[in-house]
Amino acid sequence: MSETPLSKEAAALDAADGLAAKRAEFDLDDAVVYLDGNSLGAPPRGVAGRLADVVGREWGRLGIRSWEESGWWTAPERVGDRLGRLVGAAPGQVVAGDSTSVNVFKAVVAAIRMTRGAGEGGGEGEAPLRDEVLVDAATFPTDGYIARSAARMTGCRIRAVDAADMAREAGPRTAVALVNHVDYRTGRLHDLPGTTAALRSAGARTVWDLCHSAGALPVRLDADGADFAVGCTYKYLNGGPGAPAFLYVRRALQDRFDSPLPGWNSHADPFAMDPAYAPAGGAVRGRVGTPEILSLLALDAALDVWDGVDLAAVRAKSLALTDFFLRCVEAYVPRGGVEPVTPRAHGERGSQVSLRYGPGAGEVMAELVRRGVVGDFRRPDILRFGFTPLYTRFADAERAARVLGEVVAEARR
Q: Do β-strands 382-386 and 376-378 pair in parallel, antiparallel, or remain unpaired?
């Protein structure tokens, strides 16, 4: 295939990329352009060997002794601290385990209970009762489902508002706002520090969904005063399909964190088998049942690729990749063939580019996959391309746009 000015530029950008060496730490097919790390990250090479050791030695030879001798029992907090570094949380505030949906439920219900405590509205002698849950109107569906269920169980009402309007929509009856840091459909990045500060001024709490930002850009939960945060680890964090999610509870709130799922693993003395529940202190309070050890330790191994990585460099490459891809789309795709819906402004963009195609978008993506460019399709008309800076190359961005242009042109004939 002949070179183009953009393919030559891509080669030069890859040659100057300070993160280029990281790609070798992933098991990737160089014949395929993989731009779906915003749904499922590629496997780090170290995971397979680690899992083989866990199964063959820790489980196969040590058996139940591994809960202590191999550190299984403390893995949720240990892995949680490693995740905490990537989302701006000091040790002792993140626990790894369960799914994002389960952790959303814990955080939303706990936030409602917390805002109904003395001194935050709705306590004894105080009015009005905080009985409103704000939900991002464009939220990922499971967040909305869980929030509605939590609201029904706690006697609250749900109000859906645009994420950009959360700050001004919060009022004296708002208990909590559940907000996506990055919109899964459009890739729009929302204002975490500003929204958090506004909700706090209104006497409400925030729960941030970091599924599409953790591992893609710097997050500063502690510095920005976040109350609660949840996130998955199988996207930009490359933890594997169904990898455990995580829950962040700000240290100042941990003693008041009243989990709606008080499992035996979050008990102050789990092996006392006491019929009365007494919550543990710290991040342990976010645990529920027995940890999912195989997937948790696969995640632990996957996180090794982040050792020594500067998230500022990750963000810089992410923005450069998505800028370059948009330029390539403009150059290669016939005019009017697609419409970018991801914001151009860097401060409003995550690490994906979403393009509106119109009817037939699903068929276009299927053809791209057949030709070795893997993105994904979101109904009714969105083509999504996720850029994972640890392994995505500028050459991948150029090839994806060029193939997209060919497919769109052929579809018009």
A: antiparallel
Interval 287-333: pLDDT, tens: 999 999 999 999 999 999 999 999 999 999 999 999 999 999 999 99
Q: In what order do the strands lie in the sheet with 352-356?
A: 339-340, 352-356, 382-386, 376-378
Question: pLDDT for 92-126, tens place per residue?
Answer: 999 999 999 999 999 999 999 999 874 444 334 45
CB atoms within 10 A of CB 181: 27
For the entire predicted model, the pTM comes to 0.96
**Long-range pairs for 399-402 at CB < 8 Å and ≥24 separation?**
399/33, 399/373, 400/33, 400/35, 400/325, 400/328, 400/368, 400/373, 400/375, 401/6, 401/325, 401/328, 401/329, 401/331, 401/332, 401/333, 402/4, 402/6, 402/7, 402/328, 402/332
Q: Are 358 and 298 in contact (CB under 8 A)?
A: no
pLDDT single digits (tens) 395-408: 999 999 999 999 99
| Residues noted as catalytic | 140, 209, 234-235, 384
Q: What are the φ and ψ backbone dihedral angles of 206, each rounded to 5 degrees?
A: -120, 145
Dihedrals phi, psi of 90, to nearest 5 degrees: -65, 160
